[in-house]
Amino acid sequence: MSMKLIEIAQALLDSKLTADEYESQYLNVWRKERDDGTLRNDSNDVGYCAAELFSLADCYTSSPNRDGSDLDENELKIEVKKTLEKYNFLKKE
Predict the structure, then answer these.
(1) Do 79 and 56 form a contact (C-beta atoms < 8 A)?
(2) Considering the domain boundaries, does residue 51 fall inside one?
(3) In a domain, 91, yes or no
(4) Which residues form the Colicin D immunity protein domain (predicted)?
(5) Distance in angstroms (rounded) separating the CA atoms of residues 32 and 39
(6) How far lies 85's CA from each of 37, 68, 88, in Å?
């Protein structure tokens, strides 16, 4: 199950991962789960959330020369939090 992807996103928000680490880990795990079929076994909420988080990881860049659609670290965290809230995966404090 792709809850591992949700946990990676939560680790970013908990400051256990940097944005660069999030991007790398998320994309690597997502590709592995896509290739081994794990993603197909998820509920719709997990699948849709994972897909949105993938897009956010893909839009992140640490480069100061960002395009309008690119996200910096702060923007990434804001969007990841919104996505987790949308699908009720945000850990309760």
Answers:
(1) yes
(2) yes
(3) no
(4) 1-86
(5) 9
(6) 26, 24, 5
The 10s digit of each residue's pLDDT in 3-26 is 899 999 999 999 999 999 999 999
Residue 93 covered by a domain:
no
d(CA 29, CA 74): 22
Termini Cα distance of the chain = 24
- Ramachandran angles phi, psi of 71, nearest 5°: -115, 140
> If you ran DSSP here, which 8-state letter would residue 91 be given?
P
Q: Give the chain's domain count.
A: 1
Question: What is the residue range of 27's domain?
Answer: 3-86
Q: How confident is the model at residue 1 (pLDDT cuts 50, 70, 90)?
A: low
At residue 73 the predicted structure's pLDDT band, cuts being 50, 70 and 90, is very high
- The H helix count followed by the E strand count for the chain is 4, 0
